[in-house]
Amino acid sequence: MSIASEYLEALGLTDAQKIARKGTIGGSTANIIAGGNRERIFQLWEEFTGKREPENLDDVLPVMFGHVTEMFNAAWFEKMTGKVVVDMGLSIVSPDYDWRTVTLDGLTDDRTAVFQAKHVNQFSKEENVITNYMPQVHHEMDVCGLELEYLSVFVGTLGYFQVAIERDHFYAEELFEKELAFLESVKRDIPPPGTEPIATPTIASEWKTVDMTKSNAWAIHEADYVDNKAANKVFTDAQKELKLLVDADVREATGNKLKITRSKKGSLLFKEV
User: Which one, 23, 49, 69, 246, has least CB within 10 Å?
Assistant: First the structure.
């Protein structure tokens, strides 16, 4: 094998990394699940159910270009921002859900933000790139338990931008539900559910600051929020755990106070009894 061929082979995933990723949802997979491309989602479902061999990304030129430029991207990001990138290539598994994983492009050295490197074609618009990678960005923040991610992007060979994206909790919750529904369809061996993309949250550069101290409506709902925040987290966590207890072939599960039924589309519905 030539030196050039060895270099190209080294850029791809190792066999160990491919095995570790099998059956798990990573950042790129989350992007497909939430991206709204029905054909690509169905192809991914076929891969997860063993009906199709996974695509060999080592032969996809844009993917390999991304790998080649990752280190330079991190160096350029450091030069532009003064922030240092560490832990490149580190694999992380969610502490709450072992099917959610990420292989990091990096973290900032203070471990407060994820770093994601991308290389897109010269015709790409900044707002479209941000929208396209929003699922991956939120998946990575969720798995790492962080609230901020820097998306660092080369546009062709002449353009560059980087944007700080804060975690949108509503978006992240909807993404989690889509990932869970996809895995459920894999377990039940039925085609994946709806493929509508998630509405993109507002990014930092578009935000404004307002003073709500004189709003009576704000004061009322603010008090309700603060007083019930802890209880709401307990409710949300319990709902997630109950869903995980309902196996893929269960149509109805009844406990002492709750009944969970599965709709024809696969959604789980809660009802007090």
Answer: 23
Average pLDDT taken over every residue of the chain: 86
Question: Which tens digits make up the pLDDT trace of 53-91?
Answer: 887 777 777 777 777 889 999 999 999 999 999 999 999
pLDDT of residue 19: 47
User: If DSSP states are collapsed to H, E and C, what string results for the chain?
Assistant: CCHHHHHHHHHCCCHHHHHHHCCCECHHHHHHHHHCCHHHHHHHHHHHCCCCCCCCHHHCHHHHHHHHHHHHHHHHHHHHHCCCEECCCCEEECCCCCCEEEECCCEECCCCCEEEEEEECCCCCHHHHHHHHHHHHHHHHHHHCCCEEEEEEEECCCEEEEEEEECCHHHHHHHHHHHHHHHHHHHHCCCCCCCCCCCCCCCHHHCCCCCCCCCHHHHHHHHHHHHHHHHHHHHHHHHHHHHHHCCCCCCEEECCCEEEEECCCCCEEEEEC
Q: Which CATH number fits domain 3-171: 3.90.198.10, 3.60.20.10, 3.40.50.12780, 3.90.320.10?
A: 3.90.320.10
**Cα 192-194-199 angle, rounded to 5 deg:** 130
Q: Using alpha carbons only, how large is the chain's radius of gyration in Å? A: 21
**How much of the chain, in percent, has pLDDT values that exceed 90?**
53
Residue 136 and residue 101 in contact, taking contact as beta carbons nearer than 8 Å: no
- CA-CA-CA-CA torsion sign (60, 123, 161, 101): negative
Is the pLDDT confidence value at 15 over 60?
no
Written as six digits, the tokens of 145 are 């338990």
Helix axis angle for 27-35 and 169-188, nearest 10°, is 90
Phi, psi of 134 (to 5 degrees): -60, -40
